[in-house]
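Worked example 2:
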Amino acid sequence: MHAVRRPLRLMKCLGVSWMLLSGLLAGCAGSPSTPPADEASAAVLERTIAGAHRTPAYTARDRYRHPKETLLFFGFKLDLQIVEVWPGGGWYTEILAPALNDHGRYIAAHYHRDDNSRPYRPKLRRRFLAKLAAQPERYGRVVVTELDPPQHVAIAPQGSADLVLTFRNVHNWTKSGTDRAMFRAFYAALKAGGVLGVVEHRARAGTSLETMKRSGYMTEDYVIGLAEAAGFRLDARSAINANPRDTTDHPKGVWTLPPTLRLKAVDRAKYLAIGESDRMTLRFVKP
Protein backbone atom coordinates (compact mmCIF):
# COMPACT_ATOMS: atom_id res chain seq x y z
CA MET A 1 0.00 0.00 0.00
CA HIS A 2 2.99 2.34 0.06
CA ALA A 3 2.44 3.05 -3.63
CA VAL A 4 -1.09 4.22 -2.89
CA ARG A 5 0.16 6.69 -0.29
CA ARG A 6 2.89 8.26 -2.42
CA PRO A 7 2.44 11.89 -3.36
CA LEU A 8 0.38 12.66 -6.43
CA ARG A 9 3.47 13.56 -8.42
CA LEU A 10 3.92 9.85 -9.20
CA MET A 11 0.52 9.81 -10.89
CA LYS A 12 0.08 13.23 -12.39
CA CYS A 13 2.52 12.73 -15.24
CA LEU A 14 0.61 9.53 -16.12
CA GLY A 15 3.71 7.44 -16.42
CA VAL A 16 1.93 4.80 -14.35
CA SER A 17 0.95 1.59 -16.12
CA TRP A 18 -2.65 0.43 -16.28
CA MET A 19 -1.59 -2.74 -14.47
CA LEU A 20 -0.46 -0.65 -11.51
CA LEU A 21 -3.55 1.53 -11.69
CA SER A 22 -5.77 -1.56 -11.72
CA GLY A 23 -3.99 -2.78 -8.61
CA LEU A 24 -4.47 0.53 -6.87
CA LEU A 25 -8.16 0.50 -7.68
CA ALA A 26 -8.63 -3.03 -6.39
CA GLY A 27 -6.59 -2.42 -3.26
CA CYS A 28 -8.37 0.69 -2.04
CA ALA A 29 -11.98 -0.46 -2.20
CA GLY A 30 -13.85 -1.15 1.01
CA SER A 31 -14.81 -4.72 1.84
CA PRO A 32 -17.82 -5.72 -0.29
CA SER A 33 -19.24 -7.69 2.64
CA THR A 34 -19.44 -4.57 4.81
CA PRO A 35 -20.30 -1.58 2.58
CA PRO A 36 -20.84 1.72 4.40
CA ALA A 37 -24.47 2.46 5.16
CA ASP A 38 -26.30 5.05 3.09
CA GLU A 39 -26.67 7.15 6.23
CA ALA A 40 -22.92 7.14 6.71
CA SER A 41 -22.32 8.17 3.11
CA ALA A 42 -24.76 11.05 3.42
CA ALA A 43 -23.18 12.16 6.69
CA VAL A 44 -19.67 12.17 5.23
CA LEU A 45 -20.87 14.12 2.20
CA GLU A 46 -22.53 16.68 4.44
CA ARG A 47 -19.37 17.15 6.53
CA THR A 48 -17.16 17.39 3.46
CA ILE A 49 -19.41 19.93 1.76
CA ALA A 50 -19.32 22.04 4.93
CA GLY A 51 -15.53 21.69 5.23
CA ALA A 52 -13.26 24.71 5.58
CA HIS A 53 -10.97 23.33 2.86
CA ARG A 54 -13.43 24.22 0.10
CA THR A 55 -12.84 27.30 -2.05
CA PRO A 56 -15.24 30.08 -0.91
CA ALA A 57 -16.23 30.91 -4.49
CA TYR A 58 -17.20 27.26 -4.93
CA THR A 59 -19.31 27.01 -1.80
CA ALA A 60 -21.24 30.09 -2.93
CA ARG A 61 -22.57 27.97 -5.80
CA ASP A 62 -23.90 25.16 -3.64
CA ARG A 63 -27.38 26.71 -3.73
CA TYR A 64 -27.43 26.23 -7.51
CA ARG A 65 -25.56 22.94 -7.77
CA HIS A 66 -26.97 21.01 -4.79
CA PRO A 67 -23.95 18.72 -4.44
CA LYS A 68 -25.23 16.49 -1.64
CA GLU A 69 -28.59 15.81 -3.22
CA THR A 70 -27.07 15.37 -6.68
CA LEU A 71 -24.41 12.89 -5.57
CA LEU A 72 -26.85 10.86 -3.51
CA PHE A 73 -29.24 10.72 -6.47
CA PHE A 74 -26.42 9.27 -8.56
CA GLY A 75 -25.82 6.63 -5.88
CA PHE A 76 -22.75 7.96 -4.08
CA LYS A 77 -21.33 5.64 -1.43
CA LEU A 78 -18.06 5.80 0.45
CA ASP A 79 -16.55 2.64 -1.06
CA LEU A 80 -17.16 3.36 -4.76
CA GLN A 81 -14.66 3.87 -7.56
CA ILE A 82 -15.83 7.17 -9.06
CA VAL A 83 -14.58 8.85 -12.23
CA GLU A 84 -15.32 12.53 -12.74
CA VAL A 85 -14.98 13.62 -16.36
CA TRP A 86 -13.28 16.94 -17.09
CA PRO A 87 -13.30 18.25 -13.50
CA GLY A 88 -12.01 21.69 -14.54
CA GLY A 89 -10.70 23.58 -11.53
CA GLY A 90 -11.93 20.94 -9.10
CA TRP A 91 -15.35 22.09 -7.91
CA TYR A 92 -16.56 18.56 -7.28
CA THR A 93 -13.03 17.32 -6.60
CA GLU A 94 -13.03 19.22 -3.32
CA ILE A 95 -16.04 17.13 -2.28
CA LEU A 96 -15.50 13.75 -3.90
CA ALA A 97 -11.80 13.19 -3.25
CA PRO A 98 -11.88 13.74 0.53
CA ALA A 99 -15.16 11.87 0.92
CA LEU A 100 -13.76 8.81 -0.88
CA ASN A 101 -10.32 9.01 0.68
CA ASP A 102 -10.68 6.22 3.25
CA HIS A 103 -12.71 3.57 1.45
CA GLY A 104 -13.08 4.40 -2.24
CA ARG A 105 -11.23 5.93 -5.14
CA TYR A 106 -11.62 9.20 -7.03
CA ILE A 107 -10.33 9.36 -10.61
CA ALA A 108 -10.18 12.70 -12.39
CA ALA A 109 -10.37 12.25 -16.17
CA HIS A 110 -8.99 15.65 -17.14
CA TYR A 111 -7.97 17.34 -20.37
CA HIS A 112 -5.06 15.86 -22.25
CA ARG A 113 -1.82 17.51 -21.20
CA ASP A 114 -1.05 18.60 -24.79
CA ASP A 115 -4.59 19.67 -25.72
CA ASN A 116 -4.10 22.97 -27.48
CA SER A 117 -7.55 23.12 -29.07
CA ARG A 118 -8.40 25.61 -26.33
CA PRO A 119 -5.44 27.49 -24.76
CA TYR A 120 -7.01 27.43 -21.31
CA ARG A 121 -7.18 23.63 -21.12
CA PRO A 122 -3.54 22.65 -20.48
CA LYS A 123 -3.23 25.64 -18.18
CA LEU A 124 -6.27 24.60 -16.18
CA ARG A 125 -5.01 21.03 -16.01
CA ARG A 126 -1.67 22.19 -14.60
CA ARG A 127 -3.43 24.30 -11.99
CA PHE A 128 -5.59 21.33 -11.08
CA LEU A 129 -2.53 19.12 -10.57
CA ALA A 130 -0.86 21.81 -8.47
CA LYS A 131 -3.99 22.05 -6.33
CA LEU A 132 -3.87 18.32 -5.64
CA ALA A 133 -0.14 18.25 -4.97
CA ALA A 134 -0.42 21.12 -2.48
CA GLN A 135 -2.62 19.03 -0.16
CA PRO A 136 -1.40 15.42 -0.31
CA GLU A 137 -3.22 14.52 2.90
CA ARG A 138 -6.50 15.31 1.17
CA TYR A 139 -5.76 14.62 -2.51
CA GLY A 140 -2.71 12.35 -2.49
CA ARG A 141 -4.70 9.27 -3.52
CA VAL A 142 -6.38 10.90 -6.50
CA VAL A 143 -5.62 9.29 -9.85
CA VAL A 144 -5.49 11.67 -12.82
CA THR A 145 -6.16 10.31 -16.31
CA GLU A 146 -6.75 11.98 -19.67
CA LEU A 147 -9.77 12.10 -21.95
CA ASP A 148 -9.39 13.42 -25.48
CA PRO A 149 -10.87 11.27 -28.27
CA PRO A 150 -9.94 9.55 -30.40
CA GLN A 151 -6.44 8.86 -29.02
CA HIS A 152 -7.03 9.16 -25.27
CA VAL A 153 -10.20 7.43 -24.08
CA ALA A 154 -9.03 5.03 -21.34
CA ILE A 155 -10.29 7.07 -18.37
CA ALA A 156 -10.06 4.02 -16.07
CA PRO A 157 -9.30 0.33 -16.46
CA GLN A 158 -12.06 -1.23 -18.51
CA GLY A 159 -15.05 -2.35 -16.46
CA SER A 160 -13.63 -1.01 -13.18
CA ALA A 161 -15.71 2.06 -12.29
CA ASP A 162 -18.88 2.05 -10.21
CA LEU A 163 -19.89 5.58 -11.12
CA VAL A 164 -18.91 8.01 -13.89
CA LEU A 165 -19.95 11.64 -13.47
CA THR A 166 -20.01 14.59 -15.82
CA PHE A 167 -21.18 18.07 -14.93
CA ARG A 168 -22.07 20.64 -17.62
CA ASN A 169 -19.76 19.22 -20.29
CA VAL A 170 -21.90 17.62 -22.99
CA HIS A 171 -22.36 20.85 -24.98
CA ASN A 172 -18.58 21.13 -25.37
CA TRP A 173 -18.34 17.63 -26.82
CA THR A 174 -21.26 18.13 -29.18
CA LYS A 175 -19.71 21.31 -30.49
CA SER A 176 -16.38 19.56 -31.09
CA GLY A 177 -17.98 16.44 -32.58
CA THR A 178 -16.68 14.09 -29.88
CA ASP A 179 -19.85 13.51 -27.87
CA ARG A 180 -20.47 9.94 -29.09
CA ALA A 181 -16.86 8.95 -28.45
CA MET A 182 -17.09 10.38 -24.94
CA PHE A 183 -20.13 8.32 -24.02
CA ARG A 184 -18.49 5.19 -25.43
CA ALA A 185 -15.50 5.88 -23.15
CA PHE A 186 -17.82 6.14 -20.14
CA TYR A 187 -19.47 2.85 -21.05
CA ALA A 188 -16.12 1.09 -21.37
CA ALA A 189 -14.91 2.33 -17.98
CA LEU A 190 -18.00 1.24 -16.06
CA LYS A 191 -18.61 -2.22 -14.69
CA ALA A 192 -21.89 -3.98 -15.49
CA GLY A 193 -24.58 -2.33 -13.38
CA GLY A 194 -22.47 0.81 -13.04
CA VAL A 195 -24.02 4.27 -13.19
CA LEU A 196 -23.42 7.26 -15.44
CA GLY A 197 -24.56 10.55 -13.88
CA VAL A 198 -25.07 13.53 -16.18
CA VAL A 199 -25.83 17.13 -15.26
CA GLU A 200 -26.19 19.44 -18.26
CA HIS A 201 -27.68 22.80 -19.21
CA ARG A 202 -31.19 22.06 -20.47
CA ALA A 203 -32.61 23.44 -23.71
CA ARG A 204 -36.29 23.53 -24.53
CA ALA A 205 -37.57 20.42 -26.28
CA GLY A 206 -37.24 20.74 -30.05
CA THR A 207 -34.23 23.09 -29.97
CA SER A 208 -32.13 22.64 -33.10
CA LEU A 209 -28.65 21.14 -32.98
CA GLU A 210 -27.09 24.36 -34.24
CA THR A 211 -28.81 26.37 -31.50
CA MET A 212 -27.62 23.87 -28.91
CA LYS A 213 -24.05 24.21 -30.13
CA ARG A 214 -24.27 27.98 -30.08
CA SER A 215 -26.09 28.41 -26.77
CA GLY A 216 -24.56 25.66 -24.62
CA TYR A 217 -28.03 24.33 -23.76
CA MET A 218 -28.82 20.73 -24.75
CA THR A 219 -32.16 18.98 -25.01
CA GLU A 220 -32.78 16.02 -22.75
CA ASP A 221 -33.73 13.93 -25.79
CA TYR A 222 -30.37 14.59 -27.41
CA VAL A 223 -28.36 13.68 -24.29
CA ILE A 224 -30.45 10.57 -23.67
CA GLY A 225 -29.92 9.58 -27.30
CA LEU A 226 -26.15 9.84 -26.89
CA ALA A 227 -26.22 7.64 -23.81
CA GLU A 228 -28.54 5.05 -25.34
CA ALA A 229 -26.45 4.89 -28.51
CA ALA A 230 -23.46 3.98 -26.32
CA GLY A 231 -25.45 1.18 -24.67
CA PHE A 232 -26.80 2.85 -21.54
CA ARG A 233 -30.33 2.60 -20.19
CA LEU A 234 -32.01 5.69 -18.71
CA ASP A 235 -32.73 4.84 -15.07
CA ALA A 236 -34.11 8.07 -13.60
CA ARG A 237 -34.40 11.85 -13.98
CA SER A 238 -34.39 14.43 -11.22
CA ALA A 239 -35.43 18.08 -10.89
CA ILE A 240 -32.71 18.69 -8.28
CA ASN A 241 -30.90 21.18 -10.52
CA ALA A 242 -33.89 22.64 -12.33
CA ASN A 243 -34.23 26.43 -12.48
CA PRO A 244 -37.65 27.58 -13.77
CA ARG A 245 -36.43 31.21 -13.87
CA ASP A 246 -34.06 30.38 -16.73
CA THR A 247 -35.68 31.04 -20.12
CA THR A 248 -32.57 29.62 -21.92
CA ASP A 249 -32.74 32.31 -24.67
CA HIS A 250 -29.99 34.70 -23.56
CA PRO A 251 -27.80 36.84 -25.86
CA LYS A 252 -24.60 34.96 -25.05
CA GLY A 253 -26.17 31.60 -24.39
CA VAL A 254 -25.68 29.90 -21.06
CA TRP A 255 -22.57 32.01 -20.49
CA THR A 256 -24.81 35.06 -20.06
CA LEU A 257 -25.74 33.72 -16.62
CA PRO A 258 -23.55 33.35 -13.55
CA PRO A 259 -20.90 32.32 -12.90
CA THR A 260 -19.59 33.55 -16.29
CA LEU A 261 -21.74 36.71 -16.77
CA ARG A 262 -20.30 37.29 -20.23
CA LEU A 263 -22.20 40.58 -20.69
CA LYS A 264 -20.43 41.93 -17.60
CA ALA A 265 -22.36 45.01 -16.40
CA VAL A 266 -25.15 44.78 -18.97
CA ASP A 267 -28.33 43.61 -17.21
CA ARG A 268 -26.15 42.11 -14.50
CA ALA A 269 -28.81 42.34 -11.80
CA LYS A 270 -31.30 40.58 -14.08
CA TYR A 271 -29.02 37.63 -14.73
CA LEU A 272 -27.92 37.35 -11.13
CA ALA A 273 -31.59 37.18 -10.17
CA ILE A 274 -32.06 34.26 -12.57
CA GLY A 275 -29.07 32.44 -11.11
CA GLU A 276 -27.24 29.55 -12.73
CA SER A 277 -28.78 27.66 -15.64
CA ASP A 278 -31.70 25.28 -15.70
CA ARG A 279 -30.17 21.79 -15.71
CA MET A 280 -31.18 18.24 -16.41
CA THR A 281 -29.99 15.59 -13.95
CA LEU A 282 -30.02 12.14 -15.54
CA ARG A 283 -29.01 8.74 -14.17
CA PHE A 284 -28.10 5.99 -16.61
CA VAL A 285 -27.16 2.36 -15.99
CA LYS A 286 -24.83 0.09 -17.92
CA PRO A 287 -26.77 -3.19 -18.33
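The chain has one domain: 2-25+65-285. The longest strand covers residues 190-201.
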